[in-house]
Each structure stands twice: as structure tokens, then as C-alpha cells.
Design goal:
It is built from 6 helices and 5 strands; from the N terminus they run ααβαββααβαβ. The protein has a single domain, classed as Alpha-Beta Plaits (2-Layer Sandwich), CATH 3.30.70.20. Helices cover 30% and strands 26% of the residues. It starts with a helix and ends with a strand. The mean pLDDT is 87. It has a 3-stranded antiparallel β-sheet with strand order 4-1-5. A two-stranded antiparallel sheet has the order 2-3. By secondary structure, the protein is of the alpha+beta class. The longest helix has 10 residues.
């Protein structure tokens, strides 16, 4: 099996994006804001998304990533969970067209996920630290 270095040798990122970037894709004015300071890693967003999209257990529309436990340079322990949409996330377009929230937001047990216009979410994100904003 080749090493990571061998696999990446000769990888041309410019050529990759030139070949695969969808130049006809349009941006979205909607986003997903996550206050990861209070995410409890309950995985309800993952399960709701998998059920909604009919995904197999090893596929994710949103995945909760874990950082830690680790002691930082201040001597404090950090253990953080951050839900991150994957390429399989379609922003629950059908639900949103019906005026409903995306499944991950609707089922978030900790209430740390918010959906809406990017400008409104950006203002909310500026109110505190440990928030991440994804465009959908």
C-alpha cells in the first residue's frame, strides 16, 4: 500500500479544481450556524439527516467531529464537538421550500444549530466566540 506521501506526490491541486469545479454552481444566501461551545455530541443531527436522506450508516450529510481531550498551552483541558455538513448535505432543500427547518436544526437536542440568511447568521456569530458558519 502506498504511503500518504507517495499518494500525494504529483497531485496537482490546480488541475484537480480546474477539472472538477462546477463553474455553473450558484452561491446560496442561506447558512447553518453552529454554537459548538455547547454541542453535546448527541448525534441527533447525524441520525436525523441520515434518515431523511436515506443514507447508509457509514455515510453522513452532517458529521459531528471531535477535538480532544487535550491540554492546551494554558494548562486547560479542551474537548470540543463540531457538527460539519458534508458534500452529501443538500440543506434539506425540499423541507426548506415548505418553510420548515433542515432536519439537523430541527432535531438538535442542545439547540445549538441555527438556519437562515447568511447576513443574519453572521451578525449572530459576531455576538460570541466558538461559533462556526457554513454556507449551504
Amino acid at each position: 500500500m502506498p504511503t500518504a506521501e507517495e499518494m500525494n506526490r504529483g497531485f496537482d491541486a490546480v488541475r484537480y479544481w480546474a477539472d472538477f469545479k462546477d463553474y455553473n454552481a450558484t452561491g446560496s444566501d442561506k447558512g447553518l450556524l453552529i454554537d459548538y461551545e455547547f454541542c453535546t455530541e448527541c448525534h441527533s443531527c447525524e441520525v436525523a439527516c441520515q434518515m431523511h436522506l436515506g443514507l447508509e450508516p457509514e455515510n453522513w450529510g452532517i458529521k459531528v467531529l471531535e477535538y480532544g481531550p487535550v491540554k492546551n498551552i494554558k494548562g486547560e483541558w479542551e474537548w470540543t464537538y463540531v457538527p460539519m455538513p458534508t458534500d452529501l448535505c443538500d440543506g434539506c432543500a425540499e423541507r426548506v421550500e415548505q418553510g420548515r427547518l433542515p432536519m439537523c436544526v430541527h432535531h438538535c437536542q442542545a439547540g445549538v444549530m441555527f438556519y437562515g440568511p447568511l447576513d443574519e447568521l453572521a451578525k449572530k456569530a459576531a455576538e460570541k466566540s466558538k461559533m462556526v458558519l457554513y454556507t449551504l
